[in-house]
Amino acid sequence: MSKILPVSELTEEDARNELSRLAKEILRANRLYHAEDAPELSDADFDALKRRNSEIEARFPALKRPDSPTDLVGAKVADGFAKVSHAVRMMSLGNGFDDTDIADFDRSIRKYLGLKDVAPLSYTAEPKIDGLSLSLRYEQGQLVQAATRGDGEVGENVTENARTVKDIPQKIDNAPDILEVRGEVYMSHSDFDDLNSRQAALGGKTFANPRNAAAGSLRQLDPAITKSRPLRFFAYAWGELSEPLAATQMAAIQRLRSFGFQTNALTSLCGSVSEMLEHYRAIEAQRSTLGYDIDGVVYKVDDLNLQARLGFRSTTPRWAIAHKFPAELAWTRLESIDIQVGRTGALSPVARLHPVTVGGVVVSNATLHNEDYIAGRDAKGGVIREGKDIRVGDWVQVYRAGDVIPKVADVDLSKRPDDSVPYTFPTRCPECQSDAIREDGDAVRRCTGGLICPAQAVEKLKHFVSRKAFDIEGLGAKQIEMFHNDPVLPIKTPADIFTLEQRDAGNLARLKNRDGWGETSASNLFAAINEKRTIELSRLLFALGIRHVGEVGARDLALHYLNWNAMARAIDAARPAALAQRRAEDAEEAERIAATEEGRRARVKEAREAAVVRNDVPDSAAAAWSDLIGVDGIGATLGLSLSDAFANGDERQAFDDLIGHLTILSPKAPASDSPVAGKTIVFTGTLEKMTRAEAKARAEALGAKVSGSVSQKTDLLVAGPGAGSKAKKAADLGIDTLDEDGWLQLIGDA
Question: Residue 163 belongs to a domain with what CATH number?
């Protein structure tokens, strides 16, 4: 079989081909699972395909396909069934595969809602039934329609079949006028065994597993066949309602039970991540004795008002996640550890394994994440794998929980060779031998070579020409690799792209005469390059590939500085303060490690804050730095990254060379007639009716700019309780100030 490359090793052309392959495989798997009830992939293998697709799209967002599997739910309705449009879309769930994913889920919920780590937040935890999703619509208490999920928007009308399932009430009392109950049709293990025995005795079709049997039975064109099958139904959710069921998820489930629906007795209310994980393990321990198939545990925010605030992504709710059970494990020998260098200089360790079959797939690579993971600790110094480090020659346990590229789960110390030595993570880049440093707060070590590092240079150039950057037709990843090491027409820096035609004209060996090229293709390439000599400032900033500067950060910088020269001057002016910031952070880290007293830590923090405005930093530098990191969404980390890039001689020269070939367009003012259009707004204090993230998004949607600090450029301060120094500074500068109610009234949301 062909080798499956890690996502970090894919070229843009590789990624495009891989996304095409994955789209076909996932579409086929969806059809077999949802429409034909004859899946060929295990859940773990299917999750692995979707996870790989998502990771490739995250690394190459411009390559996302119109038919991307990440935007799809289920499969289209099969022939033979009438179609039913769901009044409320039936979504799928995001997946988590380990404890860290669930902790991250909780953190993301709290961050979005503006809740502190210690604030109470409850979740329901329930078994994830491995069956067929079904929607039941009741009007005036009568069952009027049953539909499968289908593609989430349109499902199959299976009303007559659903009427034969004994767990589904035909009539319910004291229900809302409109009630859409959602749940899972399944078959118990004992009923499945009996059914297969009967089918075999009659010479009929036998089923591979209870899920296939349940889905195939419900989707029979003859309801009499469905009636002969022992189907069950668990209710756990709802769609359209004429009135709320309850204030919480748990109370709503209890009300569904009062209507006569079967609900899962293992559903529990949890008050913390640790309680969620404890319940997960309790359910996992009972998995083999439940009598029906489950493949994980689903966590949901209990408060339905919070669910409404959190809302949905394109195909999944923000307020829920499925914690999948582990996939298949296997043991093999770790033969070597290779270091790969990415576009941002990250040194990523990869385990080269003796080939082994895991979950039906032969694998020979596993991610090792970073140097901490190899050493047996997490990024914060906590112990993982009971502190066992990973060494070349070790016998390691690997798994494929939602990822085509396996991970190392454990090490068998009893099989460790006598001459084994701990792995020493390199402190120099294996590609260019530049220093590889690890900054405070960064989980990975990074090469400092920048454009002189071949690995970074090629990846940065690929990023430069990607679709959301310069998007030069005919100059993709494959062509960049070809030109990068070309002896006649090398492309080493972005500026080389824009001198390609001129350099080609001065050569005897013309591009049009090369194999694979011709006069038309060469002319088309030069025309495409010339077409991109005019570009928006935000796209240029994103294209440069400066660490931490994504699309949103590039847009925020462009809106703040408006033109390249103003931004470059400001970043240069801020350099002394940026260096002071870094010295202060380095000193704080050293003192933090040594300090043991809380008072000592507080004094260190004060020293750090004072360092940036010490007498050895000019006022102009402090002001420029404050203005830079005051741009909402920028902050010190991104500011330091920008400052380092502009101060790096090679990179700055590359920037300057490039700018000479471009016409850079300033961002257009937002087209809006709102009362805050074009104004700069600062939010401070505690907002009680929306989070800071929600407030920023609302302001920007109305055409305003949001800043993180108050200055003479500020037009409006929105101050909640605890506003502090920003409110005082706004008052001193005569800046208009509103409380949250005034802000909501101003924008028409009161």
Answer: 3.30.470.30
First to last CA, the chain: 61
Determine how β-strand 716-719 pairs with β-strand 736-738: parallel
How many angstroms separate the CA atoms of 561 and 666, rounded?
9
Range of the domain at 215: 83-324
d(CA 98, CA 326): 8
Angle at CA of residue 154, ends 148 and 158, nearest 5°: 35
Q: Is the pLDDT of residue 578 over 80?
A: yes
Residue entry with tokens 């559903």 = 267
The Cα 21–Cα 27 span in angstroms is 10
C-alpha to C-alpha distance for 510 and 519, rounded to whole angstroms = 9
Among candidate residues 50, 76, 128, 726, the one labeled active-site is 128
What's the maximum distance between 2 C-alpha atoms anywhere in the chain?
A: 92
Strand extents, DSSP E, 466-617: 534-536
Please give the DSSP secondary-structure letter assigned to residue 679.
-
What is the enclosing helix (H) or strand (E) of 461?
helix 454-464
| CB count in 10 Å sphere of residue 693 | 13
The one-letter amino acid at 660:
G
Residue 654 shares a structural domain with residue 692: no
Question: Which residues partner with 44 through β-bridges?
Answer: none
Rounded CA separation 128/44 (Å):
14
Residue 115, Cβ density class (10 Å: 0-12 exposed, 13-18 middle, ≥19 buried): middle
Residues 119 and 214 in one domain: yes
Same domain, 121 and 220: yes
Asked if the model's pLDDT at residue 466 lies above 80, the reply is: yes
Contact 363, 353 (CB under 8 A): yes
CB 299 within 8 A of CB 271: no
CA atoms of 387 and 384, how far apart (whole Å): 5
CA distance 618 to 614: 8
DSSP classification of residue 667? P
Angle between helices 210-218 and 189-201 (to 10 degrees): 70
Shared-domain flag, residues 124 and 212: yes
Q: What are phi and psi of 606, to 5 degrees?
A: -65, -40
Of 446, 379, 428, 425, the residue nearest 645 (C-alpha): 446
Read off the pLDDT of residues 611-644 as tens digits, 9 standing for 90 and up.
444 447 888 888 899 889 888 778 888 888 899 8
370-397 burial, b if ≥16 CB within 10 A, otherwise e?
bbbbbbbbeeeeeeebeebbbbbebbbb
Token code pair at residue 222:
């003859």
Mean pLDDT of the chain: 85
Q: Is residue 428 in a domain?
A: no
Strands 361-367 and 347-358, how do they pair? Answer: antiparallel
Q: Please give the Cα distance from 132 to 183 (Å, whole number).
A: 8
CA dist., res. 407 & res. 340, Å (int): 16
Alpha helix segments (H runs only) across 60-121: 99-113
Contacts 24+ apart (CB under 8 A), 734-737: 735/710
Which pLDDT does position 204 carry in this prediction? 79
Whole-structure pTM value:
0.48
Q: How many CB atoms lie within 10 A of CB 474?
A: 14
**Model confidence pLDDT, tens digit, residues 24-81:** 888 887 777 655 656 666 666 777 788 888 889 878 878 888 778 776 655 555 556 7
Q: How far apart are CA 159 and CA 84, in angstroms?
A: 10
Which of these, 470, 477, 452, 454, lies nearest to 653 by C-alpha position?
Answer: 452
List beta partners, residue 332. 396
User: Active site includes 111?
Assistant: no
Distance from C-alpha of 718 to C-alpha of 704, rounded to nearest angstrom: 13
Q: How many angstroms separate the Cα of 95 from the Cα of each of 19, 298, 383, 502, 695?
A: 20, 9, 25, 52, 28
Mark whether 186 and 265 lie in a shared domain.
yes
Region 468-480 average pLDDT:
90
